[in-house]
Design goal:
The protein is an all-alpha fold. It is built from twelve helices and no strands. Helix 2 packs across helix 9 and helix 5 crosses helix 9. This is Reticulon-like protein.
Length: 346
């Protein structure tokens, strides 16, 4: 019995040693490099949801070909490259969907405060920059902000000094959180990195769509873009650019929201207007066709008459030219005859 217990203890100890070799301990391990700052930054960016974040190989980062490509002339696209291309296409689709959803949220006032602030900011910026320069607006804003804080800080320190009888140096500054030496960064790098990546993705998407339009990937899309650009060119030649942009922004923020709130009434009015337009077209279409036929016949008759008159004028001109030529020839013959006669008499 004792031998059996000893054998079981040895077997359990052996199993524990095997499992401990394959398991990952929670404590610090030797011969393992700590995570690099770049990896921690990538993990942080990944948590922020940055789109199109792919790792580049060392050869791709310096613009050189890999040895496998240099050795084999018939290099074929690998599965990894195909997956990278598919991931980029999916990322671009995600960016397009994200931009569309955010734009719809803005113009349909899903968050009224944000939509109102953006609309008011755009319109106020257009109005201010129309009458004043950017330097004037910046200097005025800085003057108002610094002047208000100057009065506020000194008044606040004076009130505390009078109330407590202590000097102002013994109190904390009202904005001590923002002006202390060991403060948090006013511009967080992680958020800036996220928005920079997002802006680059949006610019890349816009550049790709512009290239497809310019190089005529789809005739219908390019034709529609050409008509829109021509309409904008015509409108901006008649009205100032800032007024046009302001009207466009105002229409984007009001028409979809108004249509969503009063969709039934607007659809009824549009249907009624369409029916009236159809009745007017049926009523005056025959009259317009008749007048068009009469005017066309008159134009054809006038063109035929003008053609006959022009042809007669051409014939008369030809006859006159031919008569003048014959008269000139006769005079030349008479002059030559008279010269020969005088020569013979001499």
């Amino acid at each position: 019995m004792t031998q059996i217990l000893q054998q079981q203890q040895q077997q359990a100890l052996y199993n524990f040693n095997v499992n401990s070799n394959s398991a990952v301990s929670a404590g610090p391990r030797k011969n393992i490099a700590p995570p690099s700052p770049q990896m921690s930054q990538d993990d942080l960016v990944r948590e922020l949801g940055v789109i199109d974040k792919h790792k580049d190989s060392p050869t791709a980062s310096i613009g050189l070909l890999s040895p496998s490509v240099c050795e084999s002339p018939t290099h074929q696209t690998s599965d990894e490259e195909i997956e990278v291309v598919e991931d980029e296409e999916e990322d671009m689709n995600d960016i397009t969907l994200l931009m569309y959803m955010e734009f719809m949220d803005l113009i349909y006032w899903e968050i009224p405060g944000r939509s109102g602030i953006i609309l008011a900011g755009i319109l106020s910026s257009l109005i201010l920059t129309r009458y004043y320069s950017l330097l004037y607006v910046f200097a005025a804003s800085l003057t108002i902000l610094t002047g208000f804080n100057l009065i506020f800080v000194n008044a606040y320190n004076l009130i505390r000094t009078v109330w407590t009888g202590l000097p102002a140096e013994e109190f904390l500054h009202p904005y001590h959180i923002h002006i202390r030496q060991q403060r948090s960064k006013l511009i967080p790098r992680d958020i800036i990195d996220y928005y920079v990546h997002k802006s680059v993705d949006i610019l890349e998407l816009a550049a790709q769509h512009t290239a497809k339009i310019v190089f005529v990937e789809d005739t219908k899309t390019t034709g529609l873009a050409c008509l829109v650009s021509a309409a904008i060119y015509l409108l901006t030649s008649l009205i100032p650019t800032k007024v046009f942009f302001g009207l466009l922004v105002l229409a984007l923020f009001t028409i979809p929201y108004f249509y969503e709130k009063h969709q039934d009434e607007v659809d009824d009015q549009l249907q009624l207007m369409q029916e009236k337009a159809q009745v007017l077209m049926d009523k005056y279409g025959i009259v317009v066709c008749q007048h068009a036929t009469v005017y066309t016949k008159q134009i054809m008759d006038a063109s035929v008459g003008l053609g006959g008159i022009l042809q007669q004028q051409i014939q008369n001109l030809r006859a006159k030219v031919s008569g003048d030529v014959s008269t000139a020839a006769a005079k030349t013959t008479t002059v030559n005859t008279s010269v020969d006669t005088k020569t013979g008499k001499q």
